[in-house]
Amino acid sequence: MKMDYNVSEDGYYGEFGGAYIPEILHANVEKLKAACRTYLDDEAFKKEFYGLLRDYVGRPSPLYYARRLSEKYGAKVYLKREDLNHTGAHKINNTIGQILLARRMGKTRIIAETGAGQHGVASATVCALMNMPCVVYMGETDIRRQRLNVQKMEMLGAEVRSVTSGNKTLKDATNEAIRDWCCHPEDTHYIIGSTVGPHPYPDMVARFQSVISEEIGRQLQEKEGRSYPDYLIACVGGGSNAAGTFYHYLNDERVKLVEAEAAGLGIDTDRSAATIHLGRKGIIHGARTLVMQTPDGQITEPYSISAGLDYPGIGPVHANLAARGRAEVFAVTDTQAVDAAFELTSLEGIIPALESAHALAVLGLKKFRPDEVVVITVSGRGDKDMETYIQLFQTRKTDKR
Ligand SMILES: *Cc1c(COP(=O)(O)O)cnc(C)c1O
Questions:
Q1: How far apart are the C-alpha atoms of 30 and 335, rounded to whole Å?
Q2: Which residues does the annotation mark as catalytic?
Q3: Is it the case that residue 279 has pLDDT exceeding 70?
Q4: How many Å apart are CA 284 and CA 35, to the nearest integer?
Q5: Which residues pair with 261 in a beta bridge?
Q6: Cα–Cα distance between 61 and 58 in angstroms, integer?
Q7: What is the Cα–Cα distance from 292 to 295, expressed in whole angstroms?
Q8: Residue 345's CB: how many other CB atoms inside 10 A?
């Protein structure tokens, strides 16, 4: 039998996925499932969704042939430019979809979690657009690291609630958002920012992000005369930009899928966020997946230079793609990612987000043939990471002297 890498009827990707939730959220999750069934293929819904993606987000995002990168790595390298979207990353595709669903479900209040602040900004943005109150949970540590995004969310009218439990980062913010949702199951929709959480979230988020692979198909047909690449490469935090990049090619074995997760200081150190390499089966935030944990099952604190990849779980779709060998997964270190970011900047004049730089680093880790078509998703722009880049830039200049 041919493998199907999409979600099953009951929310599983192989042995990963499902909905492990407290009883109080059961009705909410059922309602969301019903809304997905009713609206995701509904013509009026799609018209509104694609209309906003075009006129508000600025889609389709370009598929850019990177000439100098191609020369350097000996392949036809294309960049899918999600960095050019409104608010600076792919996250907005998903928040637009979810706010339209929330309105149709009669919800009047939005909550979200955020790490680097990109998903928080994308959520606050669509709430301003739709005139809905928005509460964003964010770890105290991340609030300190990402001032600019906090200020943007506040200017957009959202309330940013500081989370002081645990490591005070993304995992803790997610716990707090789930707690809020349990207290307000009636009026509140929780906009999860990645392909994580209980079913139907991973599948719903992947479908909203699948506009990325839909466009890649059309754009490659135009540029290469065939609608599929040889390689698709994306970074994975929770896995939403990767899921969107792969979506229409999941079951197309002509296309090789490559993922870059964050190795931090290295997978042989205790400072890493490489969940697929280091995780074991467990349950986190409502889904059965790979989780970074101690031998006795305590979730361990992840580390990566990029806040968007700093998560101890992974979307169940990706746990399954890795377990079945459908995707090849690289653990990319902070240093490799930063090198790739500086290289893209100097060769192509594009400053990528630190997260996206992990995907770009794969070019240096794999061998390609000159006629092979390689598409890399640049999930976001580097504006939010400028402080980190400037610091590194200064030390590199000093080192060279
Ligand atoms: C949030 C974020 C990521 C990681 O999230 P995924 O769900 O894995 O895509 C990657 N890149 C950027 C720019 C982000 O903001």
A1: 44
A2: 91, 113, 379
A3: yes
A4: 24
A5: 331
A6: 7
A7: 10
A8: 16
Residue 352 DSSP label: B
Cα–Cα distance, 66 to 54 (Å, whole number): 24
- pTM of structure: 0.97
Q: 14-52+91-204 — its CATH code? A: 3.40.50.1100
User: CA angle at residue 5 from 4 to 11, to 5 degrees?
Assistant: 100
- Reading the block at residue 216, the tokens are 């890649």
Residue to substitute in 79, 92, 118 for testing ligand 1 pocket (most ligand atoms within 8 angstroms of CB): 118
Place of tokens 């694609």: 50
Task: Give the CATH number of domain 59-88+211-400.
Answer: 3.40.50.1100
Tally the residues of the chain. Answer: 401
pLDDT digits (tens, 9 = 90+) for 181-200: 999 999 999 999 999 999 99
Residue whose C-alpha is closest to residue 329's, from 314, 340, 341:
314
Domain-by-domain residue ranges, the chain? 14-52+91-204, 59-88+211-400
Pocket of ligand 1 contains residue 96 by CB under 6 Å: no
